[in-house]
Specification:
alpha+beta; Heat Shock Protein 90; Ribosomal Protein S5, domain 2; 5-stranded mixed β-sheet; 9 helices; 15 strands; 30% helix; 25% strand; globular; binds adenosine-5'-diphosphate; binds magnesium ion
């Protein structure tokens, strides 16, 4: 066979294979887009665990009608990163919408502050539908129906409505903690409903958002963390040892406002609690790292949840040191040594 270029749809479906693992991945990408657009309200509706329908509505900047076709074209982004070492938005790859549109029936209805009318575009299994006029308030509604209808092999791997809904709810909670001034709602066909009224960006507002997600008991059972080392700032809250959990699912970590799942951070948390918690118990933690974007690489994986720090030892030392110090200051004693 001669060498030939893959079709645009194939290229997007291959990308979707990496970025769009399940309905929760779609929700993550769409909510990130809403936040990048400066939304103050983000509304998520799902049906059938997100496989039948995912609808995300925001009151952000909107997309100008003449740019709708670019929004669903590959490698097209308005978050133009002149410099890959200075990423400040959640998105930057220009990949999510074309990927989702290659494996589902996607529509975007949007209206900007300047536009006097809204417009809508669709893409179904990679086939682009013409732009047409629509009715909408300022902001954007993205609707994804029949996720993975175009890739039946992926569809077979879905775990059922409950599991997908709970993964979606976790995604929304995870992002919401980093954006306390934004109101989030999630409505599904089952019990995974969320309503997180806006608080504000102050430390108190942030803790109130954490309490909305973690439970009202969390603030009284946690200690504040605030430490700085070599320009890296760590803030947040960790639970006291008596408020531990049987798994580490309630450990949320953020790097410059981006939710991350990072082995280094997880390991540092384990290390910090090693003396006060048995091996099978896990602290509840919300930790925010803020540092110069140039010393952390977020372009590690298409889903953007992995990061690499230029100086992992510094980050680990900061987390372990700050948590231990905060526990010592709070008079929490080590169970094994009895020492403060
Ligand atoms: P990226 O987020 O990496 O730029 P996406 O494929 O997720 O790539 O989105 C492509 C572009 O579509 C964005 O750069 C943005 O300009 C526009 N866009 C997508 N969603 C929204 C939204 N909810 N509000 C405003 N603009 C949006
Ligand atoms: Mg995006």
């Amino acid at each position: 066979m001669p060498i030939r270029q893959l079709s645009e749809t194939m290229i997007n479906q291959i990308a979707a294979g990496e970025v769009i693992e399940r309905p929760a991945s779609v929700v993550k990408e769409l909510v990130e887009n809403a936040l990048d657009a400066g939304a103050s309200r983000v509304e998520v509706v799902t049906a059938g665990g997100g496989l039948n329908l995912i609808r995300v509505t925001d009151d952000g900047s909107g997309i100008p009608e003449q740019e709708l076709s670019l929004a669903i074209a590959r490698h097209c982004t308005s978050k133009l990163v002149e410099d890959i070492n200075d990423i400040r938005s959640l998105g930057f790859r220009g990949e999510a919408l074309p990927s989702i549109g290659s494996v589902s029936r996607l529509s975007i209805r949007s209206r900007t502050a300047l536009g006097d009318s809204a417009a809508e575009i669709g893409i179904e299994g990679g086939r682009v539908l013409p732009v047409r006029p629509a009715a909408a308030n300022r902001g954007t509604t993205v609707e994804v129906r029949d996720l993975f209808f175009a890739t039946p092999a992926r569809l077979k791997f879905m775990k059922g409505e409950r599991a997908e809904s709970s993964a979606t709810s976790d995604v929304v909670k995870r992002i919401a903690i980093a954006f306390p001034a934004v109101r989030f709602t999630l409505a599904g066909s089952d019990r995974s409903t969320l309503e997180l009224p806006a608080t504000d960006d102050s430390p108190e507002g942030s803790l109130r958002r954490v309490a909305q997600v973690m439970g009202a008991e969390f603030p009284d059972n946690s200690i504040a963390i605030d430490a700085m080392r070599e320009g890296v700032h760590l803030t947040g809250h960790v639970s006291i040892p008596s408020f531990s959990r049987a798994n580490a699912l309630q450990q949320y970590a953020y790097v410059n406002g981006r939710p991350v799942r990072d082995k280094l951070i997880a390991g540092a948390i384990r290390g910090a609690f090693a003396d006060v918690l048995p091996r099978d118990r896990h602290a509840v933690t919300v930790l925010f790292l803020s540092l110069d974007p140039a010393i952390v690489d977020v372009n590690v994986h298409p889903a953007k949840a992995d990061v690499r720090f230029r100086d992992p030892g510094l980050v680990r030392g900061l987390i372990v040191g700050a948590i231990r110090q905060a526990m010592a200051d709070a008079g929490i004693r080590s169970a094994t040594t009895g020492a403060a």
